[in-house]
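Figure S7 source data.
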Amino acid sequence: MTKDEVRARLRAKREAMSVFAVEGAAANLAEWMYRLPMPVGEGETIGCYLPIGSEPGSDAMLDALIDQGFRLIVPVVPDGDPQPLHWAAYSLATPLETRRWGLVEPKSESLGPGALADASVIFVPALAVTHGGARLGRGAGYYDRSLPASRAVRIAIVYDDEVLNDLPVEPNDVPMEWVLTPEAGFRRLDG
Ligand SMILES: Nc1nc2c(c(=O)[nH]1)N(C=O)[C@@H](CNc1ccc(C(=O)N[C@@H](CCC(=O)O)C(=O)O)cc1)CN2
Ligand SMILES: Nc1ncnc2c1ncn2[C@@H]1O[C@H](COP(=O)(O)OP(=O)(O)OP(=O)(O)O)[C@@H](O)[C@H]1O
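Tokens for the predicted FFO complex:
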């Protein structure tokens, strides 16, 4: 199967999830955020996406990280063709707006693509990952263009049945080091 075929299948499965299942998973993911598998000091920067639709997680996940004293940055999609993501600071008080593709992003000015260099950990949205660390995203290549410039530990967040044995891989794909799922929590990937 091609990446697009796998994507279509995984998206259809997510869209068929009940609100109950999505919300239950989001509550679990927020709990797991209190058990990060690596030491992260107060005040350190963590990158995390703002989940939309049936993506795993909710703002409760980000709130749990803020609650522990971490500084959060979230992605901002720059205008035009795909290029490295920009980032914006996120706190409980950050005014948000809905933008392109229904993404929810801070209204505030972006910090530019360089802000990711400050992050110790980055939570990466994905449709699926493999035990070896391969990641399938939404298909615009934003994270694959952004992650090479970062030293952050890369943690993909997916639903439990989206940790697969095999996925199509391309040369630009940046491997994930950990996966977080609602039921099993954090697991190291052997990529
Ligand atoms: N919540 C969240 N934020 C995120 C991501 C994400 O996956 N989830 N991203 C992860 O990279 C980046 C945004 N990437 C995206 C890439 C494609 C589409 C999208 O909907 N594409 C259309 C096709 C668009 C077109 O070609 O005209 C589609 O899939 O139908 C949306 C976001 C940054 N922010
Ligand atoms: N670093 C890069 N430089 C140039 N093109 C890239 C880079 N990374 C990915 N691409 C291209 O972007 C397109 C989408 O890549 P891919 O299918 O891997 O996206 P994805 O990882 O699923 O999406 P996303 O990161 O947005 O969630 C492909 O055509 C790919 O070749």
